[in-house]
Amino acid sequence: MLVLTRKSKESIQIGDDIEITILKVEGDQVKIGINAPKHIDIHRKEIYQAIQQENKQASETAIDLLQQLKKLKKEK
């Protein structure tokens, strides 16, 4: 992990397309702004993890349904 120290209004550049700016530091909270291309999804980590879990459950359900359909087709 790269650890950087930044002050309010200072930025970090990631590649050519992503800029992270420290907007405000208040107590134990830091407000950041992220400039990135629209095709890049940006989520809080807990939201990202929830999305991944939902996707995993949806794919497992789809596989189960396909297996059930295959089984029904064999019975006919």
Question: Which features would summarize this protein structure in a list?
Answer:
76 residues; alpha+beta; 2 domains; three-stranded antiparallel sheet; 1 helix; elongated; cytoplasm; repressor
Report on the architecture of this protein.
- The chain contains 1 helix and 3 strands, in the order βββα.
- It is α+β, with helices and mostly antiparallel strands and 76 residues long.
- It has 2 domains: 1-38, no CATH class; 43-76.
- A hairpin with a 2-residue loop joins strand 2 (18-26) and strand 3 (29-35).
- The radius of gyration is 22 Å and the shape is elongated.
- It starts with 10 loop residues before the first strand and ends with a helix.
- The model has no long low-confidence stretch (mean pLDDT 91).
Strand order of the largest sheet: 1-2-3
First and last CA, distance: 57 Å
Specify Rg, calculated over alpha carbons: 22 Å
Q: Specify the number of helices.
A: 1
Largest sheet: 3 strands, antiparallel
**Number of E-type strands:** 3
Average pLDDT reading: 91
Q: What is the quaternary state of this protein?
A: single chain
Task: Identify the overall geometry.
Answer: elongated
Low-confidence stretches: none
Helix-strand sequence: EEEH
Share of residues in strands? 25-35%
Protein name: Translational regulator CsrA
Coiled coil: 48-75
Keywords: Bacterial flagellum biogenesis, Coiled coil, Cytoplasm, Repressor, RNA-binding, Translation regulation
Subcellular location: Cytoplasm
